[in-house]
Amino acid sequence: SLNGTGWGSVEGTRLVLYNLLNITAKYGDDHVKEVEELWGALCRWRKNIHITINFLIHIARVSSSSALLQHVKKIIVCFVRTQQIEIIEEVIDQLKSLDPIPVEADVVKQVPRYHLQVTEQATSSK
């Protein structure tokens, strides 16, 4: 059983999410149950659901990789199995509120593999 509030620093949260995404991409097909349990443990804390779904949606929006999109889909399915109604409501709420902000994803060699940044065009339009 995990203890705590499930809430940490922004940097720590990003590192955990990028690492879990990397683990899912690398080992998800061979260790389905274990990877599902990792993501399921993350969403046991309500505060993590919003942040994690937001992260996955942003990764999916900026990625042109169909393989990465398949991993995001698997992760959402893991969440739905754990907290069905809450996850579906959160995904719908976040998809409704998407802004057409141009975001670039730079692939980097070291973890966290992707670096998300808002482009100059988006910041000048606000």
Q: Compute the gyration radius: what is it?
A: 15 Å
The geometry reads as globular
N-to-C series of helices and strands: HHHHHEEH
Total strands: the figure is 2
- Fraction of helical residues: 55-70%
| Spatial strand sequence of the major β-sheet | 1-2
What number is the mean pLDDT?
75
Into which percentage range does the β-strand content fall?
Answer: 5-15%
Q: What can be said about this structure in brief?
A:
With 126 residues, the chain is mainly alpha-helical. Helix content is 64%, strand content 8%.
Task: Spell out the blueprint of helices and strands.
Layout: H1 10-27, H2 32-42, H3 46-62, H4 66-82, H5 84-96, E1 103-107, E2 114-118, H6 120-124
Antiparallel strand pairs: 1-2
Helix pairs in contact: 1-2, 2-4, 3-4, 3-5, 4-5
Tell me what the structure shows:
The radius of gyration is 15 Å and the shape is globular. It has 126 residues and is mainly alpha-helical. Helix content is 64%, strand content 8%. Helix 2 (32-42) crosses helix 4 (66-82), helix 3 (46-62) runs antiparallel to helix 4 (66-82) and helix 3 (46-62) packs across helix 5 (84-96). The model is unreliable at 122-126 (pLDDT under 50). The chain has a two-stranded antiparallel sheet with strand order 1-2.
